[in-house]
Design goal:
Elements (H helix, E strand, L loop, with lengths): L11 E2 L2 E2 L9 H12 L20 H14 L3 H10 L1 H7 L10 H13 L5 H12 L7 E12 L7 H19 L4 H7 L10 H4 L7 H21 L5 H17 E5 L5 E5 L17 E4 L5 E12 L5 E8 L8 H12 L2 E7 L6 H9 L4 E3 L17 E3 L4 E3 L5 E2 L2 E3 L5 E4 L10 H4 L7 E4 L3 H11 L2 H8 L2 H12 L10 H27 L7 H43 L13
Parallel strand pairs: 3-9, 9-10
Antiparallel strand pairs: 1-2, 3-7, 4-5, 6-7, 7-8, 11-12, 12-13, 14-15, 15-16
Length: 581
């Protein structure tokens, strides 16, 4: 049942009121000032039953506790401890010092509900509302910048041997639990004793520099995995999920061939399979790269930032191996949903400047500004940029003045123009191509959009326009300070929740600092707030002293009456027995 927030109480320690004040303009002071109106318990009403159960801990207070936890980047238990022992947290939550807000399991259950119900983005929506209240999101249309940031996954990244072993252990645990047996007993009964340890490679006594020894061990492991899969016939969802994971691990990393004697042997596949799972404990993790030299294993934080205010207005989590622009259009649509404002234009870096992305935005009547990468040349030869491409007449002219209209239609809709024999006697051939058939130039199916973008970015206005995307770099750096860069939880959904909390905190802080700067010097509300706080403390102190006097008088009267009854009896008036000691 939905619980309601109680009125704030004074900070008491050992029966004494604390005259404690938060540091002005700190995150805790700003959050404490906004706490009474920031969230409503009704915003989280869909998470609770209207009639069943006892009243819950106030969900608005739990939301505040989550904000405090993610800002401090502490564990669940540490968050509960600080809600009791940290006066800053107690002031924000409006609770008694020394008393935790809730049990750790209550916080975890509340977070799990928010993670499952992704449409309940009350925390992020509150940050957008605060930005609008202080005047940061003004007008009827937004200009946004988009970019991504790598997030290292939480799950353990393992090589092929340990990865398959982890898959076997997960399936074994699911089957053992379903059959009500101990895990070690299940492994022993199925001849899988070596998987009881955390590392298969750590207990395998082979020469790892010997390829034949490695393949022999892998063949044994694959055979045991397939034997276990053949026994996993239960419809239990946990068993089916673990079996599917193990099958995928075998498929992506192992190739099996028959030898001359007809026996099958397994070996590790060369290269990396597309969509490979590097972690069995977190199957949502993927191999990714932010650049040609920077690799990571995890996810990508996809963020949209308002140009003028630097407020984060949209967020998403992409797979680590997904392209930066793969969710750009969906992110723009989400921004309009989050803010109830139209997006007038979107700015991105080179990763968003490809033909397919430009076509998506053009078909959706969206305005996209993204830099077109500079043409690269192979071995110092002429790049594509020095050729004159006439899209209207479907011709291409080379630097030597030769024009060709002969082309092959590509499967993606592009055209590959061929110069052929005209290159044979060309004096610039050595600077243009080394191919025997002559030079060829591939024209992108969205070449018209790319040419317009390339011409625009050469102008002063275009260069200034593209430089505006620095705002998203600043916000990504702020998210990095708030822990985005390392996932706190396993799985895509929980990582998305972590990104939402970090984005909300960044927005709150930016909005409240902006509001503070708008106030004239010496005209802030801090004096009024401090005066009201002192008056409340004085009132609480006076009431406490009065109650203490009343309690003392009542206690003295009760003790005197008890002594009288003990000495003279209740009804007869005769002295009662008094022991002599």
């Amino acid at each position: 049942m939905l619980g309601k927030r109680l009125a704030p109480v004074p900070l008491l320690v050992a029966g004494k009121t604390l005259d404690y004040h938060l540091t002005p303009d700190s995150f805790h002071a700003q959050l404490a000032a906004a706490a009474p109106t920031l969230f409503r318990d009704e915003d989280f009403g869909n998470l609770y039953s209207n009639r069943m159960g006892r009243p819950s801990v106030s969900p608005s207070q739990l939301a505040l506790l989550l904000l405090l936890q993610h800002e401090a980047q502490v564990s669940d238990q540490e968050a509960i401890n600080r809600s009791a022992c940290d006066l800053r947290w107690a002031t924000v939550l409006g609770t008694q010092a020394g008393e935790p807000l809730c049990a750790k399991s209550t916080l975890q259950e509340f977070r799990a509900q928010l993670t499952i119900h992704t449409e309940l983005r009350a925390v992020f929506y509150a940050s957008i509302a605060e930005a609008k209240r202080v005047g940061l999101l003004k007008g009827t249309a937004l200009r946004i910048a988009v970019d991504t940031k790598p997030i290292n996954g939480r799950g353990a990244v393992e090589d092929t041997f340990n990865l398959i072993a982890s898959g076997i252990r997960q399936l074994g645990r699911a089957m053992a639990k379903h059959s009500a047996r101990k895990f070690d007993d299940f492994l022993r009964a199925n001849g899988l004793d070596r998987y009881a340890k955390s590392s298969l490679k750590g207990c395998a006594d082979i020469d790892w520099s010997d390829e034949q020894a490695r393949n022999a061990l892998l063949t044994q492991v694959v055979g045991e995995a397939r034997r276990l899969l053949s026994k996993a016939t239960s419809p239990n969802p946990n068993i089916r999920a673990a079996a599917k994971l193990l099958e995928q691990l075998l498929l992506q990393d192992v190739e099996t061939k028959k030898g001359d004697d007809g026996s099958e042997g397994s070996s590790v596949k060369a290269g990396t399979a597309k969509g490979r799972l590097p972690s069995a404990t977190d199957p949502d993790v993927r191999h990714g790269r932010k650049s040609s030299s920077k690799r990571f294993n995890g996810h990508k934080a996809d963020v949209a930032v308002d140009h003028d205010s630097q407020i984060i207005v949209g967020y998403n989590v992409l797979a680590g191996d997904a392209g930066d622009a793969s969710g750009a259009l969906e992110l723009v649509n989400q921004v309009e949903t989050n803010t109830d404002l139209k997006v007038a234009e979107t700015t991105g870096d080179c990763a968003y400047g490809g033909g397919p992305t430009r076509k998506q935005f053009n078909d959706a009547n969206r305005c996209l500004f993204a830099k077109v990468p500079k043409d690269t040349s192979t071995n110092g030869l002429f790049s594509k940029g020095v050729f004159v491409i006439d899209l209207n007449n479907s011709t291409v002219t080379c630097p030597a003045g030769h024009t060709t209209s002969r082309y092959h239609q590509e499967s993606d809709g592009g055209k590959k123009f061929l110069f052929g024999s005209v290159c044979a006697g060309c004096p610039l051939r050595s600077l243009c191509t080394t191919a025997i058939p002559g030079r060829s130039v591939t024209v992108n199916p969205e070449e018209a959009l790319i040419q317009d973008a390339r011409n625009y970015q050469k102008t002063p206005e275009g260069r200034a326009h593209l430089r505006r995307r620095f705002v998203v770099e600043h916000r990504l750096a702020r998210l990095g300070q708030l822990g985005i860069g390392q996932a706190r939880y396993k799985g895509h959904r929980k990582t998305l929740f972590q990104l939402m909390m970090a984005a909300a905190i960044a927005n709150f802080r930016l909005a409240w600092n902006h509001e503070a700067h708008l106030k004239p010097t010496g005209a802030t509300n801090s004096k009024h707030d401090l005066s009201a706080h002192r008056h409340r403390n004085a009132l609480y102190t006076m009431i406490e002293r009065l109650m203490s006097k009343i309690t003392a008088v009542l206690t003295a009267n009760i003790q005197r009456r008890l002594r009288y009854q003990f000495r003279y009896g209740y009804a007869t008036g005769k002295p009662t027995f008094r022991p002599r000691f």
